[in-house]
Amino acid sequence: MHKHDVKGVLFDLDGTLADTAPDLVYALNLSLDDAGFSAQPLDTMRHAASHGSLFLVKTAIPDADEALQMSIQQGLLQHYGRINGQHSRLFDDLPELLTLLDQQGIPYGVVTNKPARFARPLVDKLGLTPHLKAMVSGDSTRHAKPHTAPMFLAAQQIAVPPEQILYLGDAERDLVAADNANMHGGVALWGYLSAADNPHLWPAKRHFEHGASLKQFFVE
């Protein structure tokens, strides 16, 4: 895959475009505290931040019963709605990358499994809303990634054929979704990968170590 094969770029949100773990883990810890549990360190929970609120809770208290886990999940979501975006930021070199894409006339957008009630305010706080040509949330279609429905919707929004789109993600479902939609999959190795992940087995065309290497791809 060469940059000339890419006419549009789509990003996963949590762990790919933005470092949202500080807000998510903070909201988790507020809910854990409400229920009498100890706080979890950000560094040990960061890898879970791409996989949704219930996965965060199950990672924090794996031995708790399901009803309690779901109760703490609901508390997490309530706290997160209040603090969403306060401590989140774009990953290093990605603001410069987006500027470069603007300069090259390459449209870009977001495809996330995060519900719109959280994704859209977050994107707004990150200052991205005026620049995104696509904003597809987990509830924008009837299916979430790895289904192709949100991928094809985003392709329509940026008006680029799927086979000319680079989709960047930090979880296996992201690369499976890209492959299913006939997009170029790129692994964001700077994201929330765990020690158990093996991204070289994922169906990806390229692996990017950091934002700088992704930026360099569009300069070459």
The total beta strand count reads 8
Specify the structural class.
alpha/beta
User: How would you state the average pLDDT, rounded?
Assistant: 96
Rounded to an integer, what's the Rg over CA atoms?
17 Å
Strand order of the largest sheet: 5-4-1-6-7-8
Strand content: 5-15%
The string of secondary-structure elements, in order, is: EEHHHHEHEHEHEHEEH
Provide the helix percentage.
40-55%
Profile the largest sheet.
6 strands, parallel
The DSSP helix count reads 9
Q: Termini separation (Å)?
A: 12 Å
Describe the model.
With 220 residues, the chain is α/β, with parallel strands linked by helices. Helices cover 41% and strands 13% of the residues. It has nine helices and eight strands. It has helices at 21-34, 42-45, 53-60, 66-83, 94-104, 116-125, 149-158, 172-180, 211-217, and strands spanning 8-11, 18-19, 89-90, 108-111, 134-136, 165-169, 184-188, 206-208. The strands form two sheets. It has a six-stranded parallel β-sheet with strand order 5-4-1-6-7-8. A two-stranded antiparallel ribbon has the order 2-3. Strand 6, helix 8 (172-180) and strand 7 (184-188) form a beta-alpha-beta unit. Helix 5 (94-104) packs parallel to helix 9. The longest helix is centred in the middle third of the chain and has 18 residues, at 66-83. The mean pLDDT is 96. Keywords: Carbohydrate metabolism, Hydrolase, Magnesium, Metal-binding. This is Haloacid dehalogenase.
